[in-house]
Amino acid sequence: MKLDFGGLPDPNDARNSLSKTTGYQKLFNYFEEVINTEKFSKSIVSLRKKYGLSEHGIRGSNDFMDLFPKLTYELYYKNKAFQEDLDALLLEYGLDPLMWGSELTEYIVADEFSAEPYVSLCNTWDYKKFVEKNEVRLATRIHHQDIYPIVLGISPFASERDILDYIKHTYSQVIKPLQEKYKNQTLKIGAVKKKKPKIQERNEFIYMNKELPRREIMSLVNDKFGEVLDYGHIGKIISLMEKKRKEP
Fold this sequence. Notes:
This protein has 13 helices and no strands. The protein is mainly alpha-helical.
């Protein structure tokens, strides 16, 4: 079963366009931060156990190729209790179930993603067609209005310049106040800065070895990354990584 997105262009083309926007990068950076927190990880493990999966999903099992599509489909499309639990988890972190639901189901089942989610901080929808095609699903699962409570109406005759000009002249007085009205101040969407891959790898390495003596960590980091870090720097990295894992 494939959800009809109602009037959007080919999903692959749309995904490629979205991936070039700052809204996509901010949201994906935030998700990567969330998924590494202890709280979120415990929630994933809890869902796996609740629905009969192992703590680490089914990745590595002998019949993985047969089980993966079957379990993913049955949970995401057929199991109402799972759908409700999944939606509740996503909404807790300010993530739209429509955008993230199928991908997170795959992660719960297999502990990995098969594709990047179709997401952004901004979206364009043909709401009329979407509601017509997905009326039952909307009534039972979709909380799109909670994630995108402000709608930008666009005339079919408006040019790109017209749209950008409207946003430029109304953002401060009209759009921003509405955003502040609905914004969940506890969420950090847009505030997570993406570190360079090498730095992120180094920090993860230090955190994974945090129980070792600082001098030994210094030596390991020097051997693996060619960097000389002092006691204070290593301690700061460990503290920051621990903080990130406690809250998104």
